[in-house]
Design brief:
The complex is a heterodimer of chains A (500) and B (40).
Chain A (H helix, E strand, L loop, with lengths): L9 H9 L5 H19 L2 E4 L1 H16 L11 E5 L26 H8 L3 E6 L33 H8 L5 E6 L5 H7 L2 E4 L19 E6 L2 H11 L17 H4 L8 E5 L12 H14 L3 E5 L4 H26 L6 H7 L7 H24 L2 E5 L24 H6 L3 E8 L6 E7 L5 H14 L46
Parallel strand pairs in A: 2-3, 2-4, 7-8, 7-9
Antiparallel strand pairs in A: 1-3, 4-6, 5-6, 5-10, 9-11, 10-11
Helix pairs in contact in A: 2-3, 5-6, 7-14, 10-12
Chain B lengths: L1 H15 L18 H5 L1
The chains are: A alpha/beta (500), B mainly alpha (40).
């Protein structure tokens, strides 16, 4: 088993704990060392919770030594996008408006991760309140992409995307209203799942909208998405959008393979003007892999990305304004420029227009429901471009650029991003998006797992150097390092990537 | 404010593109469900 701690998966860490080859304390110290060495250039953290992490690691270590395994996240370090509330730890939304806000209660997702024995490494960067960004006028700088520090990790779960890709943690919690998990996952070459609306409780997560917010896992493999989702999914009566549906065994469902599945490849979304030239061939190659594994692929036509983006942005603009109206009236100067400019239009959209968009949303969701009666899952890209350059002067394309993630925000169905290749000129990740019917996360994960068992895209990681966080433009696989039985349970610090 | 004024035409065009004239039975997504509160 590879023992390069920064890039071990949740599944691999669990096995290493079981075999006493690693301990949670050893892993946590190694990751904290790596964060200290490299995050000064990546800015993926707003706050590192070192003391909490080490205390939780010691508790997990003692419990695991005593044979008490709480579940798949026991002893696993993770991070939280900084709109997820943590009792006693500042939760800022990366905004001046909330930079001193210290919640008194944990978000439901945090409560579940704590109960599952997870180890909180810290609070991670976001665009301002999960929408306004990338911004250079906030109290913290925007996160950078570990594949190329001159580029951004996408948003708004920018910190989780960068931190997981950089090998700072195997897993993080992101949020997704229009693509904020899937975009950063795509741009950073990791896996990210927007679960079904209502699958994971929103309680204690600062809202972006009232009808399209989703909380979900970001990891380096589909298997790890399944393991983390197992812990955070489930009904919460205190969240009015929460669905009271049984939570299946996501790990057990991974191994079904794709033989006999019918998959719809959505026409026109990942091709054409504005799409990266290497994206079409990368998606075609991924489709060919799934066909070789036994799936049947057929084209399917849905409404245009322009339609979906207009519908989503009309709804979200109004709901966003409702959320921020009071602060906008009383503290407009404390908003970042981009967030303020995206909140203001919501004041000018009429109720009639909002309802027209909500009624259109019903029709668009029904269009997808019809497609899911024909197909087990739908395939497209998770991003039409590679990660943007970090350029404070770049114009805001919030409305003008059609989004390839918003269609599944509209319908609320589960949608998973996984890496499927790299651009030739820039060496930046490209990503496949797999969407399934409501509550069928297991189907999307099963397809992704089959793809990842047959390929190595998800095993490629950026290389961070000590002097800077510049990474190779060609991908590199961190070499497995042979390990003997543990130094571990003695908690000795361990050096991390051989390149670091 | 100048930036907002510059951005507004794109929002206005977006709203103009919304389809209108749906049948009354075509209700908004996320319509009210009273049983949700009885359950909770």
């Amino acid at each position: 088993m590879p023992m390069d701690i920064p890039f071990l998966t949740i599944a691999e860490l669990g096995r290493a704990y079981d075999q006493r080859e690693l301990s949670p304390v050893e892993v946590t110290r190694a990751l904290l060392d790596r964060i200290a060495a490299h995050d000064g250039k990546l800015h993926s953290f707003i706050r590192v919770t070192e003391d909490i992490a080490l205390a939780e690691a010691k508790t997990a270590e003692a419990e695991l030594m005593a044979g008490r395994r709480r579940g798949p996240m026991h002893g696993i370090p993770y991070g939280l996008k900084d709109i997820v509330e943590t009792a006693g730890i500042a939760t800022t939304g990366q905004s001046k408006l909330r930079q001193d806000h210290v919640p008194t209660e944990d978000a439901e997702v945090v409560r579940r991760l704590k109960a599952g024995g997870g180890i909180l490494l810290g609070k991670l960067a976001t665009w301002e309140f999960a929408l306004g960004g990338p911004s250079w006028d906030l109290p913290w700088p925007p996160a950078r992409n570990p594949w190329d520090r001159d580029r951004l990790p996408g948003g708004s779960s920018s910190g989780p995307g960068a931190a997981v890709a950089a090998g700072f943690m195997p897993a993080a919690i992101g949020t997704d209203t229009g693509g904020s998990i899937r975009g950063p996952a795509a741009f950073c070459g990791i896996a990210g799942l927007k679960p079904t609306y209502g699958r994971v409780s929103r309680r204690g997560v600062f809202p972006n909208t009232f009808t399209m917010d989703h909380i979900g896992p970001m990891t380096r493999s589909a298997e790890d998405i399944a393991l983390m989702l197992q812990v955070i999914a489930g009904f919460d009566p205190a969240d009015l959008g929460s669905e009271d549906c049984p939570v299946p065994d996501y790990r057990a469902a991974l191994d079904g393979g794709v033989k006999g599945l019918r998959l719809g490849l959505i026409e026109g979304w990942h091709e054409g003007a504005g799409a990266h030239p290497d994206l079409g061939p990368a998606i075609a190659e991924a489709v060919a892999v799934l066909e070789r594994l036994g799936a049947t692929i057929e084209p399917v036509k849905l409404s245009s990305l322009r339609d979906y983006t207009d519908c989503k942005t009309t709804i979200s603009s109004v709901e966003l304004y409702s959320i921020h109206e009071r602060d906008l009236r009383t503290r407009p100067q404390d908003f970042g420029r981009i967030l303020r400019n995206r909140v203001l239009p919501g004041a000018l959209i009429r109720g009639e227009d909002y309802l027209a968009a909500l009624r259109w949303r019903t029709a668009l969701a029904q269009e997808q429901a019809a497609a899911f009666r024909r197909f087990d899952a739908l395939l497209t890209a998770a991003a039409r471009t590679i990660a943007d350059k970090a350029d404070p002067g770049q114009p805001d394309r919030h409305v003008s650029t059609p989004s390839i993630t918003m269609p599944f925000s509209i319908s609320g169905v589960p949608a998973l991003a996984i890496p499927c290749g790299f651009s030739r000129a820039e060496g930046m990740p490209l990503s496949l998006q797999i969407a399934a019917a409501p509550m069928q996360e297991a189907m999307a994960l099963r397809i992704a797992h089959a793809f990842q068992q047959a390929t190595d895209r998800h095993r490629r990681h950026p290389v961070l150097t000590k002097e800077s966080s510049l990474c190779a433009t060609t991908s590199a696989i961190c070499r497995p390092r042979p390990r003997t039985k543990s130094a571990l349970w003695s908690s000795a610090p361990v050096s991390t990537c051989p390149k670091s | 404010m100048q930036q907002f004024i510059a951005a507004w035409p794109e929002y206005e065009a977006m709203v103009r593109r919304l389809p209108r004239g749906r049948a009354y039975a075509e209700e908004p997504a996320h319509s009210f469900r009273s049983t949700r509160f009885a359950e909770g």
